[in-house]
Amino acid sequence: MMVQKHSGHYVLLASCPFQKRIAAKLTQFVYDLSSEIVDYDQYADIADNHFYCRMEWNPAAQNISDDEALTRFREEIAEPMNLRWNLRRNDRPLRLAVFVTRELAHLYALMMKCVSGLWDANIELIISNHPDLADEAARFNIPYHHLPIDKDNKAEQERRQLELLQDNEIELIVLSRYMQVVTEKIIAPYENRIINIHHSMLPAFSGAKPYHQAHARGVKLIGATSHYLTSQLDEGPIIAQEVKVVDHRKTVPALISLGRDLEANALARAVGLHINSRIIVSNGRTIVFD
Amino acid sequence: MMVQKHSGHYVLLASCPFQKRIAAKLTQFVYDLSSEIVDYDQYADIADNHFYCRMEWNPAAQNISDDEALTRFREEIAEPMNLRWNLRRNDRPLRLAVFVTRELAHLYALMMKCVSGLWDANIELIISNHPDLADEAARFNIPYHHLPIDKDNKAEQERRQLELLQDNEIELIVLSRYMQVVTEKIIAPYENRIINIHHSMLPAFSGAKPYHQAHARGVKLIGATSHYLTSQLDEGPIIAQEVKVVDHRKTVPALISLGRDLEANALARAVGLHINSRIIVSNGRTIVFD
Amino acid sequence: MMVQKHSGHYVLLASCPFQKRIAAKLTQFVYDLSSEIVDYDQYADIADNHFYCRMEWNPAAQNISDDEALTRFREEIAEPMNLRWNLRRNDRPLRLAVFVTRELAHLYALMMKCVSGLWDANIELIISNHPDLADEAARFNIPYHHLPIDKDNKAEQERRQLELLQDNEIELIVLSRYMQVVTEKIIAPYENRIINIHHSMLPAFSGAKPYHQAHARGVKLIGATSHYLTSQLDEGPIIAQEVKVVDHRKTVPALISLGRDLEANALARAVGLHINSRIIVSNGRTIVFD
Amino acid sequence: MMVQKHSGHYVLLASCPFQKRIAAKLTQFVYDLSSEIVDYDQYADIADNHFYCRMEWNPAAQNISDDEALTRFREEIAEPMNLRWNLRRNDRPLRLAVFVTRELAHLYALMMKCVSGLWDANIELIISNHPDLADEAARFNIPYHHLPIDKDNKAEQERRQLELLQDNEIELIVLSRYMQVVTEKIIAPYENRIINIHHSMLPAFSGAKPYHQAHARGVKLIGATSHYLTSQLDEGPIIAQEVKVVDHRKTVPALISLGRDLEANALARAVGLHINSRIIVSNGRTIVFD
Prior knowledge:
- The structure is a homotetramer.
- By secondary structure, chain A is of the alpha/beta class.
- Chain A has helices spanning 2-5, 22-32, 66-81, 104-115, 134-139, 154-167, 184-187, 210-217, 252-275; strands spanning 10-17, 36-45, 50-58, 84-89, 94-100, 121-128, 144-146, 172-176, 194-198, 221-228, 238-245, 279-282, 285-288.
- The first copy, chain A, has two domains: 2-89, Alpha-Beta Plaits, CATH 3.30.70.260; 94-288, 3-Layer(aba) Sandwich (Rossmann fold).
């Protein structure tokens, strides 16, 4: 069943200390498999003496099995070159879990991309601390897990969340205006696989009610920031930012409304970049092959 | 000498608690002078129950003297309406002082506007804590005052600065990357008449080396903020902000270079808005009639 | 049934040649009804000697019937002032029809706003020349009318479209990437009530495959423009525009993908502005009270 | 005189059909000279099967003469790889000529960068069809050639322009709002070395008075485009674009003023990119290593 086995594309994200002939070795590896490179991008950070690349190839004519190819990659490329790497086979939709509270706009921005086939991804489940969006989940036939959280049950609910994530083989978690602190228990096993949206131009206005703060300062621009979640709240590697010009005529509700659109856009852009394997996290910042 | 006396335009900036017929009373006042309104803009902040307006008129056919007109305005309009107001007669260039250290880009952005006649303003003097830009001042025949500052002489030098500002009847001070803290001694007499530029999107990265901070966080946007100086450093009312998309490829020097252009633009925009009497400061924020 | 009768807000959009005391008369009218102004914005175009305003008020305590109020407005305000005006009572959702072909992204941007209650509007029906989006319409319980169009049946199908629009008392038509020319038969009865979306680039590429053209020219920005449809295709009054920075790395599919998001955003912004009665069309341009 | 001979940096811009080990061969060439790579960026256009790169290196420790290095590069790299390439030694300022008519803002944007040392370039001469800016040229000690153009003398004046350009060994021509058509006589010998600035709006207004047209259409964005001049007026490869949000409140003079700043910025950005050897022109579009 050659055809089925080698359907989809491979995407490699890799980084390593700068050394000679990296690009040559990586591309040669693909040519030796009789595969065809369909996209290649790299970035050499001369100051840090570090190399980053994204290589996408079509394995339709691959001349060995996937296992053999992988073994060869490890032995001939990754280990000798001291590569940090991530290889994804795009032969099935990525499995997403979305955490929500009450906000619909951000969830729809994600669902539209999945439903329309613009993303090769499915939302496998929605987890919420509130019941409000259950009907919308039902509309899209997505299992909705209402796990209310209070002071006493947080650890227990997180245990159940983790179970759901693992049982459903979730590959990416999206915090879509989930108004709860997610703890290390979830963050640790999903490092660089949890995307959060922050309702302002981080690092400005990192506290509560950022639009009220922005209005009080009379800012002339508002923004939204999507980032990978780390245990340092609002401090994780930034993926995408959106910004819009405003003036004094914008009331707080108008800022919130405008901000909601910016947030939904910045979140969807970040998730799309992750789904398409376009992000490497390195030293707390992202290299985005966009 | 009617013609000369009534040359130029008047610009009124005014604000007051919302009350009936404000706009009608203000415009009627101008009509009663036989003057012609050339621009009118207003903003009603319903939430704060406050009214703001900018009215510009041509007094060419004014039927009474300026003193009489002013007296009438005070008595019939300003006092009964409890107006906070500022009236400027644009019949001569506004008198600017620019404080610099070593950065030329921002100063040139200001000088170009003055030299070309795009602004109705002159740079009357340049004050610096360094000698570096003296030749450039000479190129434009602008007096350059080198007042080096160290721990011991700060108060004395500020006294001399203040003297220069007063002797030259300075109306607006521009801190054009002046790398010294300006104290209350200067700020108090020039409230809302000192414009500063901050090399980032305030309130983010308010400390030192903001471009290094921005690079380390891997931001996807950088910005610059111009604001009126208050004794709360970097906390004054924001006037104009500029922003630019960046990616991981931008090194710190590239960010600094891009940031310099944004800063120069944001500073020049703010100064231009002030020169054209387009800014009202109210409760720590600006109303900009742009 | 006072409460029901005077629920919702009123929004007045009005314009007229500049004359004395316009704002005073308009606001006084509302005060005389014992109603409360909740938003007021105006724009005086001095060059054209024209006045535009938007006034929103809460009629909860209105002291006369709606009919009486309307009559009084006509007689005392609109006629003597030679007002062009539009008054909307926001006491029920605005009735929308959406025309689509195959593109889902734009439709979802509209549906999300309706479903979530962010807009006070309902999509009453979807009309399409293709069957593709019928399932999505069903998901949202929106009647879907598949009216395929060919050379021979265009006039007949437009007659049926018009019938559907009238039978459903449609107040706003949204062309959501509807890939057919809409003729005067539909445009005339819905003047300034049909919103279209158009990709747009700098420079403009008016022919087919604009993103291919943009790629070939190596543009550094791509954009989208929403506008009211007129019989001059793509020449109607512009409502909202979106733009994004791109570089040579963006392939044609990447430009199309980015453009789709810009278009959906620009379309949704325009429709939202219309729904909230924030647009006056005057001399082929829009005054947007945003 | 090793030190002097190998001062400055080398910058190579190169493109070729995609082939194996391009990056490896290029970087190896530099290593073999005992030189140090200080910047490297590349772009592989998979769709066109084409490779582009920019490599910058420090020849301080170069172990052979420049002539030998160049010969070796030609024989071992450029010819066998079928490279289109451009190598610049940044050991002296690039020689610019600026063509102006009456607009000062754009010229100042260029002069500031040269005077301040931010660009490694000098304006060697200014050519104008008007005398207006002669005093400004004098202020900066730049020779100013007033060559008025009418129907009868155009060919003759272009001959003199060309003579001036050649006598002064000009490497880059900047059309800084030069309101004359430049013909093939100048364009041909300076292919991809003449940079022009063009206002540009969405949609494009190609005729006269574009800002009046933009105002009449009520555009919500205005922009500016810098590009290399080709014989197809305003159709040359785009280098940089700037855009700004506007609304109906902006009068035509306000649009012109804002547009002037955008144009000056877009022009200066383009010229800076060229001076730093960051642009490859290929098939009518630019690859910008920014």
